[in-house]
Design goal:
Rossmann fold; 14% strand; alpha/beta; 180 residues; globular; five-stranded parallel beta sheet
């Protein structure tokens, strides 16, 4: 029998409330992760939004969650996914989500507001296609049979319609805040 991997909570320098929220999300994900592997109907994704903090803390927290549920963390590099040519961003996101479902990854999108930002007013075809990529990401997140974590500096930069995707919103302290 395989032993449970050690969770990295002790390495996080975050307030108790934040660590408690991360542990609650991990418990939720653990209790639901068995249903990801089965072909059952209904919404199966578990999605969290990390708001604030610094990149290192958010990434370590995402790694702790992935370790806690016995999965591999896959950090999505948005600079490689988001492209200026029509349809390329959607094609790249499709590959990411297909691989994640096949390999049972925990997906981590840092600086997610780059893709889930507020929709722009449509003045030309570029705006229309940028909004289409945003809509596509929201659709894929909603249909994803797994665990996804998105991070942003401030959730006010996200389109409010996307906030329904998150079962957990976890607030990280501002960089430089003393957490001892």
């Amino acid at each position: 029998m395989q032993s449970k991997p050690t969770v990295l909570w002790q390495g996080l320098r975050l307030p108790k409330e934040c660590v408690g929220a991360l542990k609650a999300f991990t418990s939720h994900a653990q209790s639901s992760s068995g249903s990801f592997d089965q072909k059952s109907a209904g919404r199966q994704h578990i999605c969290a939004l990390f708001e604030g903090g610094n990149v290192a803390d958010r990434k370590m927290a995402a790694q702790s969650i992935a370790t806690g549920v016995g999965r591999v963390l896959h950090e999505v590099n948005l600079s490689r996914v988001a492209k200026k040519y029509i349809g390329e961003t959607e094609k790249n996101l499709s590959k990411v989500f297909d691989s994640a479902e096949r390999n049972h990854w925990v997906l981590f999108f840092d600086e997610a507001d780059a893709l889930l930002g507020k929709r722009t007013q449509v003045n030309d075809s570029h705006d229309r296609y940028a909004n289409a990529a945003t809509d596509y990401l929201a659709q894929r997140l909603d249909a994803y049979r797994g665990i996804a974590i998105l991070a942003t500096h401030t959730k006010s930069s996200l389109n409010p319609a996307f906030l329904r995707l998150f079962q957990h919103v976890i607030l990280f302290p501002s960089p430089g805040t003393d957490c001892s």
